[in-house]
Amino acid sequence: MIRTLFVAVCLLFVALPVAAEDLKVLPSSFDGTTSSGMVHDYLMQEAQKAFDRRDAEYEKLKTPEQLAAYQQRMRQFFVTKLGGFPERTPLNPQVVAKEDRDGYRIEKIIFESQPKHFVTAVLYLPEAEPPYPGVLVPCGHSYNGKAADPYQRASILLAKNGMAALCYDPIDQGERFQLLDADGKPLAATTKGHTMLGVGSILVGRNTATYRIWDGMRGIDYLQSRPEVDPERIGCTGNSGGGTLTSYLMALDQRIKCAAPSCYLTSFRRLMETIGPQDAEQNIHAQIAYRMGHADYILMRGPEADVDVCRHTRLLRHQRGLGQLPPGQAVLHPDGIRRTGRPDRNRRQARLFNAVARRRGPLDAPLAAAPRRCDHRAGEQHCN
């Protein structure tokens, strides 16, 4: 009886509502910052300090020798944080299809940037007398990679203006998805796929950018192997994520004589104040602490007379001073690269290569008409 009564009393106390214990140790806000935003605000403060240190150190560079040492230091840091590059191995290129188009022709290519690491690409060739310049066209974050309308349009426009254009699929885009389900469907694509690759890369001292940059460098190897292409006139242009790769490649590969990155270059200060960090290959480990900013991708290659992205930037600064800067063009500013609007990027980039890579005419020289209509054939998009 007593045991039964004891159990009943215990159950009664269990059933009674008990005030939840308050385990919070932080106030809901502190100096105008919510508790959930404190770490972010702290990191932003540390980043701003690093930006200020970078600006102060850069202003101390006064002599050519100091600038040369700065360039070398930045390149060495960049390559070190990428974990270095693999050895060059046979590309084993395959041409799997050829098609003649209106004013140009294409070849569908597969090559190996590393053994059994296949890169799928389309080579756009002009109806012109070889040898002609070759332009590498890295893609942005399009699910269908090189088949995306803007990258076909840019490549066609380059070919119609007398240049070969090699547009290739990035990892986890187009025909290069890395992680598939039981039905062969991608489990991760574009930015998610790049970031998942980035997590594993960190563990071995590398970055998604290591593999992306190496794919681009081997793409240049393939362009230079083609008898129709002048190996001394190599360019690179890309938009968004392709602008990222163009910026990296022009900084690290001396073979690129002309570069036109689009919709990427800014400053880390501005980037952190707006959209914040991006996916894995756009975050090089410790680069803010080391003060390697977007402008340094250009500075690593200057002041070489034949690196025309620098000359193009100087021209744009001059045009801006004269009130002649077209909407959307980029200008080099002490705080990074800034733009003035959004014009037809494809025509502007082709015009730059028309004037610089081929050395024919001014920047406003006439161009062949840009393709305007796209359709779908055999699952891949084609523009005419």
Quick description:
The chain is of the alpha/beta class. It has eleven helices and 13 strands.
Q: Give the biggest beta sheet.
A: 7 strands, mixed
Strands, count: 13
- CATH third-tier fold name of the domain at 94-359: Rossmann fold
Q: Which value, in Å, is the CA radius of gyration?
A: 26 Å
Strand order of the largest sheet: 3-4-5-7-6-8-9
CATH class of the domain at 94-359: Alpha Beta
- Report the oligomer: single chain
Please tell me the CATH architecture of the domain at 94-359 by its name: 3-Layer(aba) Sandwich
How far apart are the termini?
93 Å
Mean pLDDT: 80
Residue share in helix: 25-40%
Secondary-structure element series: HEEHHEEEEHEHHEHEHHHEEHEE
Helical segment count:
11
Strand content: 15-25%
What is the topology?
Layout: H1 2-15, E1 29-30, E2 33-34, H2 38-59, H3 64-82, E3 94-101, E4 104-114, E5 117-126, E6 132-138, H4 149-160, E7 164-168, H5 190-203, H6 208-225, E8 229-239, H7 241-252, E9 256-262, H8 268-273, H9 295-299, H10 308-321, E10 330-333, E11 336-339, H11 345-355, E12 374-377, E13 380-383
Parallel strand pairs: 6-7, 6-8, 8-9
Antiparallel strand pairs: 1-2, 3-4, 4-5, 5-7, 10-11, 12-13
What does it look like?
The protein is α/β, with parallel strands linked by helices and about 375 residues long. It has a domain at about 95-360: Alpha/Beta hydrolase fold, catalytic domain (Rossmann fold), CATH 3.40.50.1820. The chain is about 40% helix and about 20% strand. The strands form four sheets. A seven-stranded mixed beta sheet has the order 3-4-5-7-6-8-9, with helices on both faces. A two-stranded antiparallel sheet has the order 1-2. Helix 4 (about 150-160) packs parallel to helix 11.
